[in-house]
Amino acid sequence: MDFSVVVEYFPRLLEGAWVSFQLVILSVVLGGVFALPIALARISPIAWVRAIPFAYIFFFRGTPLLVQIFLVYYGASQFEVVRESIFWPILEEPFWCAIIAFTLNTSAYTAEIFRGAIQAIPQGEVEACKVVGMSKVQMYRRVLLPRAFGIVLPAYGNEIILMLKGSALASTITILDLTGMARTIIARTYTPMEIFLAAGAIYLVISIVIIALFRQIELRQNRYLGTLSIKVPEKG
Amino acid sequence: MSKTPALELINIHKRFGDVDVLKGISLKAYDGDVISILGSSGSGKSTFLRCINLLENPTKGEIVFNGSKLDLVQGDSDLVANNMKQLTQMRQQIGFVFQSFNLWPHMTILQNVMEGPLNVLKRPKKEVAEYAEHLLRKVGIAEKKDMYPNQLSGGQQQRVAIARTLAMDPQVILFDEPTSALDPELVGEVLGVMRNLAEEGRTMLIVTHEMNFAREVSSDVVFLHQGVVEEKGTPDQVFGSPKSERCKAFISSAF
């Protein structure tokens, strides 16, 4: 194996990594913003309000991300209405097609994570809000959302890492993200082992950064829970 | 007495599925009354207390607070509040202390006590902070104000929960088995705080298993059995010469 190609093409790989990073950050932020109202609708007491996010989540969790990307990228352009609409400048860009597919996908997963977190808050804490006469809005703002944020962190960090790895699928629609860039380099140098190893290593580094970041936020956010490690009693 | 009761419950019924938990309970509490509600488990005493501020929706009945009737309409199976604003305003004036404390774990002790007056009643922060510290001193826990609930013992948490309730300046305070979740050696400190409140002339409804406490502190005692008021009267009547056989058996088993 000849790792000099890695050194030579390393700046190009970093360019690709930067594209991957943008894809993940943008879709995670947008997905998070959409996820909150979806999650709140999902636990609505009104049946038809619950039904809409249920169908949305059902579709985006039940179909492959790759299919969703193709639907947006190849599917949308079939329709003349779309091509003539003001959204075409966005929809003709593979980058934005990927962002749209990723955002829709991650918002469905994230909404489920949020929903679980809100429902995991002990009923007694909610009753404590009721008996001081809080309104629904005050309840969410002061207790439910801050509490849910603490509960959600481990699962949400996991979702971001899944998104990072899922972002490699963007390479299938001509985007030169880290995976796309690696494949382009390999087409020129015929060194799949070296370049894919290097790309994998870069993904790993980004994952470690995300994990460390979430670990810190978690420690800070959940400091009120006291010790985070479960102590196993010693024998005897 | 001709003045209006602070709180009046009229013919409260509660049904869970096929089970009639409350079968028509009425109760009046005047300002300064300390009413203990006794009964074996399953008698419906906690359910009754929770119906008062609609933590549980009664199936039938009326709730009158300070002479104004709570606006209730028929829901799917139970009565529900017709006017959320009226309900939240009533809740702001009726304190509730839970068996399991239910402090908000993400807030410090001081923040827990300040939350209601500051963000619900919208009182000025400085005033609220001073009052909260005063109340924490009163329940003997001022030095822990910057700690989180999980760092406190059960008895300490319950005292904080009482301070949190007092911070709202409630007209009536409901206690739902406030010492039942505590280790025996911690019960005394909570009862001590409650005894002081009773002596201050606060209006209190207390669901409890602490017979001695109920006998010494209450102005009235109500004994519930299978969803109805089986015996009612002053502590001396109920503990000294109960008329009902069930009440007699319950009290003799407790002492």
UniProtKB/TrEMBL annotation, chain A:
PROSITE patterns: ABC_TM1
InterPro entries given in the database record: AA_ABC_transptr_permease_3TM, ArtM/GltK/GlnP/TcyL/YhdX-like, MetI-like, MetI-like_sf
Major site of localization recorded for this protein: membrane
Stretches assigned to the ABC transmembrane type-1 domain: 17-214
Keyword Signal among UniProt keywords: no
Subcellular location(s) of the protein: Cell inner membrane; Cell membrane
UniProt keywords, alphabetically: Amino-acid transport, Cell inner membrane, Cell membrane, Membrane, Transmembrane, Transmembrane helix, Transport
Pfam families registered for this protein in UniProt: BPD_transp_1
Membrane topology label: Multi-pass membrane protein
Listed transmembrane segments: 20-41, 53-74, 86-105, 144-164, 195-214
Family named by the database record: Belongs to the binding-protein-dependent transport system permease family. HisMQ subfamily.
PANTHER family tied to this protein: ARGININE ABC TRANSPORTER PERMEASE PROTEIN ARTM, MEMBRANE COMPONENT OF AMINO ACID ABC TRANSPORTER
Name used for this protein in its record: Arginine ABC transporter permease protein ArtM
Organism: Marinomonas colpomeniae
From TrEMBL, chain B:
Start and end residues of each ABC transporter domain: 7-251
InterPro entries hit by this protein: AAA+_ATPase (IPR003593), ABC_ATPase_HisP-typ (IPR030679), ABC_transporter-like_ATP-bd (IPR003439), ABC_transporter-like_CS (IPR017871), MetN_ABC_transporter-like (IPR050086), P-loop_NTPase (IPR027417)
Keyword Zinc attached: no
Subcellular location: Cell inner membrane
Any Pfam family: ABC_tran
Keyword Membrane: yes
UniProt entry keywords in alphabetical sequence: ATP-binding, Cell membrane, Membrane, Nucleotide-binding, Transport
Protein name: ATP-binding cassette domain-containing protein
Biological source species: Marinomonas colpomeniae
